[in-house]
């Protein structure tokens, strides 16, 4: 039955004057608390989805003047003074509500982007894949949403020294950190066991570096950093786009031995930086001693003489060497490819001339003895 405006006004009046309890449908804070508790009790995917919803809301409001603050004022009594090596690991299942876990350390990995509301808030998982909410207050380099997300990014490993596990204002449990030195970045447990997402990502597969190397040398068009990052994440690898770009900027392992390998259907020589060989004719096996412009000598030599290439081959070869030494590997590859094509053309031309001379010599009449 619908209530009349008069009945609704009386309920609101009672709430404002303190006469009577606040009805459930008017207590917005109680409703938000109930929703948060329901989300915390959901599955792993539901909890992550709920957190990401709050992250998106926080990102939308990042440029607005916000007066939102946390209502959870209970802090850790004092900063921890224990060293990381002297602490014993603790899991999510072992955390006790309202306690500072002396002599323990919580190793975890961030599994979502973080939001920011007076603190950097995110979800972390332990080695068993159990989730826990984490809020880090007053961290010097995380004083807004952008800096917090740059510091507490998805996939980063953390160690929380003597964690404080408490009931938050929304009625859900979580770990609160108030001292910067209680957070150790990129730390792993002494006997590290992969987390659930790491274990399911590549149970017996290659490391992320090996997978990137496979993608770089695979056939097909080159893959940019963003498409490769999306592919790696879809395959279960945990890597940031910045780290992927850093890895892609390094030369491939094959390039350290040979800048460019010959492509299918082309001459099989690789084109590394070669010592200069003096221009001039000579028999096979002789050392060139005369000075002159550098010449590129292929690995496969004709039977009776050494092939010396012309200026076009040398120009592309020298340009490739300079680009390779400067770390510009794509330009180097293009220059080496041009040098190979020009060298093949000159070799075919030289072979054609030799054949014509042989035919001409055979066609001459014999001279009697």
Automatic annotation (TrEMBL):
Ranges for region Disordered: 248-301
UniProt-listed InterPro entries: Gramillin-biosynth_MTr (IPR053209)
Tree of life domain: Eukaryota
Protein name (record): Uncharacterized protein
């Amino acid at each position: 039955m619908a209530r009349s405006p008069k009945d609704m006004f009386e309920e609101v009046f009672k709430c404002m004057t303190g006469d009577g309890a606040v009805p459930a449908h008017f207590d917005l804070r109680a409703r938000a608390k109930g929703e948060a508790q329901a989300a915390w009790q959901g599955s792993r995917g539901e909890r992550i989805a709920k957190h990401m919803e709050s992250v998106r809301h926080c990102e939308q409001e990042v440029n607005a003047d916000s007066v939102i603050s946390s209502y959870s004022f209970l802090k850790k009594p004092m900063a921890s003074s224990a060293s990381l090596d002297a602490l014993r690991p603790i899991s999510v299942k072992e955390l006790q509500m309202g306690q500072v876990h002396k002599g323990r350390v919580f190793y975890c990995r961030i599994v979502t982007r973080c939001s920011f509301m007076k603190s950097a808030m995110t979800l972390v998982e332990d080695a068993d894949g159990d989730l826990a909410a984490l809020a880090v207050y007053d961290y010097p380099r995380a004083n807004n949403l952008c800096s917090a997300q740059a510091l507490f990014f998805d996939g980063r490993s953390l160690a929380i020294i003597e964690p404080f596990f408490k009931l938050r204002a929304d009625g859900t449990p979580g770990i609160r950190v108030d001292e910067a030195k209680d957070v150790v970045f990129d730390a792993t447990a002494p006997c590290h066991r992969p987390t659930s997402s790491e274990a399911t990502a590549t149970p017996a597969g290659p490391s992320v570096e090996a997978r990137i190397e496979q993608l770089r040398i695979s056939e097909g068009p080159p893959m940019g950093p963003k498409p490769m990052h999306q592919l790696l994440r879809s395959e279960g690898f945990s890597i940031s786009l910045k780290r992927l770009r850093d890895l892609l900027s390094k030369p491939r392992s094959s390039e350290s031995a040979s800048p460019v390998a010959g492509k299918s259907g082309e001459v099989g020589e690789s084109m590394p930086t070669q010592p200069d060989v003096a221009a001039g004719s000579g028999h096979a096996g002789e050392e060139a001693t005369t000075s002159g412009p550098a010449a590129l000598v292929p690995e496969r030599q004709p039977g009776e003489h050494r092939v010396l290439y012309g200026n076009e081959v040398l120009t592309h070869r020298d340009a490739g060497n300079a680009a390779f030494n400067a770390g510009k590997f794509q330009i180097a590859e293009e220059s080496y490819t041009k040098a190979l094509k020009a060298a093949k053309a000159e070799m075919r031309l030289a072979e054609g001339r030799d054949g014509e001379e042989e035919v001409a010599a055979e066609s001459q009449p014999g001279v009697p003895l």
